[in-house]
Amino acid sequence: MGPSPVQEVNAVTTSPRAVRRATPRSRHPSPPAKSGEPIRSGEPARSGGPARSGGPARPGEPAGPVPGGAERASDAERASGPAAPFLPGAEPVRLVDEAGRRVAGPPGRPGGTGYPEPPTETLRELYRRMVIGRRFDQQCTALTKQGRLAVYPSARGQEACQVAAVLAVRPTDWVFPTYRESMALTARGIDPVRVLTLLRGDWHCGYDPAAERTAPQCTPLATQTVHAAGLAYGEAYQGRDTVALAFIGDGATSEGDFHEGVNFAAVFRAPVVFLVQNNGYAISVPLAKQTAAPALAYKGVGYGVASEQVDGNDPVAMLAVLTAAVEHARSGRGPFLVEAHTYRLEPHTNADDAGRYRDADEVAGWLGRDPIARLEAYLRSAGALDDPAVAAVAAEAEAAAADLRDRMAVEPTVDPIDLFAHVYARPTPQLVEQRELVRAELAAEQEPASRTGHG
Asked: Do 248 and 277 touch, CB atoms closer than 8 A?
């Protein structure tokens, strides 16, 4: 498969003076609430965040839900001080429990989190894409065993994170995926065969990033963090309301690029959402050996980035929090960091032996927190899903898997000379020399056997 037609993207050139002029805020966060200013019990004073429910917005502060766990008693001690606007809630946001029951909370404020529940139709679509996504993931694992894919990093168990993220952004927003986001990319509407081109090994990226508003899947840890921050700032500089969403694994938060990207986004108030999928392991390294922080969401505080932690296996909470985070970034209030507590049910990749660093009981415990079963139970209890609807989605997922299986059975046509395409806008003399050397070697292999002295 050859590359998709590539669209040109105008570059942004700025001088240091222009950058300072374009920075849409002061470099210092707003001060905490003044003495005597009313603060609701248990509600952090989030300068620069959405307005507090039940009270007037500050000047220039639009009304909306409060990211960070408004009205949670456990947050009361964080209701003042310069770090208050950036602190995540003490516990992950949860709107629906493992049995599919709505978590109790004030009227209109499920779970007391400050995040409105997404519309029912949106939740039905979330369920549909999660079911299709899981079947896609299972088919990819089978394709790997058949030799159709060179490698496949499964996202089974992380469906709520993958699908809620792409539903929270607009088609005109940008997404920066890692190697594990194949499910998210298909949920975004990208042709699954083109998504798998990288993992099959016949092209660097099978889809056109500019057309899909989706960066190539990133294998080096955390480099997409810097890319997302830079693109988001460039879009804002040009007056567009684009948001960039960067997928990040828990292991990537230990990389320098993560810190550079988050810090840049904070300083220049870039409209970017950093979604950290904390699935417990950086390949085989458990979280406890990566950080001593109470949660990865707290890493945002040191940079002045509003942060939140959420139950990553609660699809309703995932979509609610990410929707608020995207709106926070789009409205000019700067970046937002979301940590999703989830779990990778399959090995790191098909080449990994997960039994060497975790036991079966641990995996079984997380099987009981299945995000698809949780959302299905919740929608059924609300009368928004029944047996015929569930069967229809399952049939659609099977049909999509069969289509993928058939299309992946066709051997791709590859040209080794493509290795040298799109490396530089103008090939360097060294690249041209290497290309011609390969071209000569290929021509020599195609000469008649008699010319080579064989046969």
From this structure: yes
